[in-house]
Amino acid sequence: MAGIDDSLTFHPLRIAVLTISDTRTEESDKSGALLVGRIKDAGHEIAGKAIVTDEIPAIAAQVQTWADDSGVDVIISTGGTGFAPRDVTPEAVRPLCAREMEGFAVLFHQASFGTVGLSTLQSRAFAGQIGDTFIFCLPGSTGACRDGWDLVLKLELDSRYRPCSLAGQVPRLRDLCA
Fold it and tell me: Does residue 111 contact residue 152 with C-beta atoms inside 8 Å?
């Protein structure tokens, strides 16, 4: 049966949070703060936090910097995944990915449908892998970040989750929680 196996050791991941917005500041970034709080509450480490504007070069540069950093296992971004003219997160991140994780978008939309109904169609949430670093791109609302973390990522990033956890694909943990 799928779930947390309490007999296993929890191995914290090092997760960086990127907010993509032309208007948010550290003081007004509720979605980024929500993710940071939930990541810490789950026992993971914050490897970085940044806010960049809705510009492809700015997004790609920050994501690539973290993907190149061996101290970052996972990147979670919030914002820029909709259909407004300035929403360019997928266009900035997809070219960096060696592989996409199609199942993430499916599960995110299923979870989101339960809270926002058909409005989930307006999200281009997605995930992929840049080198050995996983990236999950969530919409910018606190509700979407809550759904993405609570209903999908919290379990999938927990090394004790069975039948398997994405943590087992992080190079430094492959031998510990495969």
Answer: yes
For residue range 12-24, list pLDDT tens digits in order: 999 999 999 999 9
Q: What is the pLDDT of residues 71-108, one digit of tens each?
A: 999 999 999 999 999 999 999 999 999 999 999 999 99
Count CB neighbours of 90 within 10 A: 16
Q: Which two tokens stand for residue 147?
A: 């759904």
Taking the whole predicted model, whether its pTM rises above 0.90 is answered as yes
- Other CB atoms within 10 A of residue 17 CB: 25
Phi, psi of 140 (to 5 degrees): -85, -5
- Within 13 Å, how many C-alpha atoms sit on residue 156's CB side? 18
**Structure-token match 């061996």, residue found:** 70
Half-sphere exposure of 99 (CA within 13 A, CB side): 8
How do beta strands 99-100 and 74-78 pair? unpaired
User: Do residues 160 and 6 lie in contact, with contact meaning Cβ atoms separated by under 8 Å?
Assistant: yes
Each as own residue / partner, the long-range contacts of residues 62-66 (CB below 8 Å, 24 or more positions apart, any chain) are 62/18, 63/18, 63/92, 63/93, 63/96, 63/130, 63/135, 64/96, 64/130, 66/16, 66/18, 66/133
